[in-house]
Amino acid sequence: MRLLLILSALLGCILAPFALFNLFFRDGFPVVTNGREILDARNRSVHLKSVNWYGASDVKFVVAGLATRHRDDIAKTIRRMGFNSVRLPYSDELVYTNPPIPADELAANQDLIGHSALDVYTSVINSLTDAGLLVIPNNHITQATWCCGANLCDTAWSNDWLGPICRVKQTEKTWIENWRKVMEPLAHNSLVIGADLRNEVRGPWGTMHWSRWATAAEKAAEALLDINPEWLMFIEGISSANDLEGVRKRPVTLSVPERVVYSAHVYCWSGWGALQPYARRTYQSFAKDMRKNWAYLLESDIAPVWVGEMGTADWPSKGDLNYWQHLVQFLDEVDSGWAYWALNPRKPAANDWESYGLVNDDWETVRWDFRLDDMVSLGLRPLR
Fold first, then answer.
1. Residue 266: which residues within 8 A CB-CB, separation 6 or more?
2. What's this protein's family per the entry (predicted)?
């Protein structure tokens, strides 16, 4: 009996940080926007320090790592690393086909064996929120594959204008229907704070116009706000999410106020529109581009901006490091929320090493290096 009491006390010490964090977060949600800020129900500023956890958007239709470790334990590892939120990509093909996930992909999650892809996706979200993490589902790609290639069928939310070319055909209407299927089971989970409506909207040769995307985003957002009017709507920029200049003249406007968060992606190869990727920029050139593209929204107190993807290799090249150091400096200056790409140790299709990843193959050992040190300087708060 004494041993049981000791074990119970030890377990309570281990779980206490998660319980307190979960209680704090659930008590303070839902959230709203106010100028550049995201505020909780107690009017406290919410700074999103997020990580991407991918797999459900790729060829296996399942969030990666579930063959190796239980989803609850991966969620606790993410929380211990200091992240307060997770961006969780999915593909439209997952929603259309909703296949049963093979048992070997769920070896460490025996309770999910026999379940469909959407059920597994929802279960992972519930594990994340049970650990006290905020979750932002992301419609990443139409056809389940690694994003983002030159395939025109995946550059935008709909591809029906291409006729019979696309393996997975999608209209704007079916894209919105897919969103409803993903979000309806999550309507009463207060830590699912919203939806990242589409990843890296782009067109061939820069032909995607902001006004076209803004109109589609409003339609999808209104459909989701019908399910839960308290969700935030994350709207990415065009040109692979790097360009939000169009908001100056054409902001996204919704029937429910204080719901819009804009999102940018910034990588070393970004900046291609000016024929000079960020890997080769001076800080002054880099910062000027950031302010022109999206940071003006923060500095003019117009709307929140979340850098929904950023990242670099564990052994970076000179150009990688140049970009990364400039980005960290700029994020510190403008105090933007961000989401690191990515948690994963390997890419799903061919099991290639993920040099941008933050954990090892056991999905437990953290690859703590300069990247996480820099994220600590940006507000990441590891649990010790």
1. 242, 278, 290, 307, 309, 310, 327
2. Belongs to the glycosyl hydrolase 5 (cellulase A) family.
